[in-house]
Amino acid sequence: MSDDPRCCGTGTCIINDEGVCWCGQKWDGQKMCFPTRSEASSPLAQTQQAALSQPALTAVQPEMPSHD
Fold first, then answer.
1. What is the pLDDT of residues 31-61, one digit of tens each?
2. Model pTM greater than 0.70?
3. Are 48 and 38 in contact (CB under 8 A)?
4. How many alpha carbons lie under 13 Å from residue 33 in its C-beta half-sphere?
């Protein structure tokens, strides 16, 4: 679990210098909360949302030659 007082209690918080967690919550000076609608439409939020919507990388299995 994180010793960061801003952590929401899950122990999974990763909070950047601007107080924004990977989950999208932001430190408001007293608690973690989700951004307002105007904050959520900021360029930074749009970049973060675009990164989260990218498909996960998966390993590709090489095609095995047939032994016919």
1. 888 877 766 566 666 666 666 666 666 667 7
2. no
3. no
4. 8
